[in-house]
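Sample intake sheet
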Amino acid sequence: MNPNDKISVLPDGGAGAMADVEAVMKKYDRESNVRLWEGPPKLVIRVLMAAFSVYCIYTTLTFRGLREITLTAFLGMILIIGYLNYPARKRDVRPNYMPWYDVLIMLAGSASLFYYTFHAAKIVRQSTAITKQPLMVAMAVIAILALMELCRRSVGVPILFVVGALLIYTFSTTRFQKALYDMYYAKTGIMNTPVDVCAKYIVVFIIFGAFLERTGISNFFIQLANSVAGASAGGPAKVAVISSALCGMVSGSSVGNTVTTGSVTIPMMKRTGYKGEFAGAVEAAASTGGQIMPPIMGAAAFLMAEYMGVSYAKVALTAILPAVLYFTGIYIAVHLEARKLGLKGIPKDQLPKFRVLAKKIYLLLPLVVLVWLVSTSTRSMAYSAAIAILVTIAVGVLNGFFYPEEKLTFAKAVDALEAGARGTITVAVACAMAGIVAGCITSTGLASRLITAIVSVSGGKPMIALVLTMLCCIVLGMGVPTTANYCIMAATCAPILINPAIGIPTVAAHFFVFYFGIVADITPPVALAAYAGSAIAKAPPMKTAFNATRLAIAAFIVPYIFALNPAMLLVDVSGVSGAFGAAVIVVTSLIGLFGVAASLNGYLYRPIPPALRVLLAAGGLGMMIPGALTDVIGLAVVGGTVFFQRSGAKKPAQS
């Protein structure tokens, strides 16, 4: 989402004092630390970036030649627009200023990639012999270093620690020429699946998301959430949960969604009576969850389909039940907190009327068209996204006839193309780094050694292997964007679980590592989304991060459920008995989540004594563990606790 877009949710357009969105984004999101261009240079760069977006749409629809040609050209242009946007340091942000060394790196790096573009057929034919030529070796090294430096500027340092360590290991254990060939010239490194999927699919979906924002759909989501939940107890927090789930699936950025949506919802939550650290945590947890919300899933759904070799429709369908459990868990925690504090909702006369919003339901048409085209395999994913962009433009123009202030003008369309290009930079370089990670693991055979080590430590017991894999995912996922995050997890952690010694089904393994890679954004110590929420809420960062982890407890439990019982993912579910089994898992998991959330909150109808909180948590977890016996015991414990609490709360009222 665009950090400069102001979103109003109340009829008068006022959402209280708006937080300084841009300042928070610059502090916690490297994507916002961009150069300052003014006058003619700004116009030139604006046109250049819009042209890049148009080029990407055109090539994904028409090009049928060597993939090395499109991928190297794509990365070469990414280097140009990347260095034009991102300075080496924050203090380099001065109007129309770009130091000579940035120009040199930009030209050298892009020239190396473009040379590959124009000589791709010859380079492919020469195979490993290409690394015997000093010039080709130099260009490969320059291109890799230029991409790594751009990654440092736009994405951050954490991912580079992983990449750097793996490169050192690779070059110290493998012959230099072979390692360099694998990293740059072959399809096992930078040109691996992540960049391929980014150039073919993700870039078009990023542009699509940028157009959606300019048609007012983000504002529509927030207004819709206000209409549905704003008047209930602690309404603003429930609005944050619903709106962030809807906006986050399109935005593809936990931090970006936290800041833009949170600039409205967090002040509203604080005015309602929530503490600052709780308000920031609600927004961070919900915004992070937007990345697992089908059908878009922050564009990761398309990568998952490619990696697992299944249809996009299956990925979207598989993600539904876990996402429902995740957001239900947060919603329950928010409701219990509101009950504990005695909070009320927003007065109904200040909320948007549903009958008024219903007249704008046509704003959802682009999403409906996209999902229908992709899920029915009517067109390819890229072609479907291109059609959806055209539908978005048509809807934006139509919307302007009824609401002139929301009209999609030519300037807004150029803004969308420019924003799409800028959003692609971070994803593309992060995917390139993910490709290097995968290349290092493949080239050195590190994956098999890692699998052997974890299988050995776990003794072949799935639960121990799942815990160890979870820790790996959280560490590797810190500060990494959604799409690159999944690429790294799919290359490093998923094979551990798929190994026959552990025996987790492929789909369950990929979803498991994806979930724990994503929650790194709200897990201390590198909880960027939570820290961004704390900045808006003006609350202690670490307290906000721990609150966010508590609220998102479902994300730490649900993956274990579907890993041990894949029926939740609708894997191998057929017939009435299979559907019934999946329904039972969802119902028992929801009751279990309620028990765990109530235990962590410490309040139901009245404060819960410490001993009873422990018992309630155990009962809730019991219902989430597959098995009839644990379900019965858990239900007895949770149900008995609720009955005991309710009865105790009624007695003082009666007396």
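Comment: The chain has 30 helices and no strands. Residues 157-563 form one domain.
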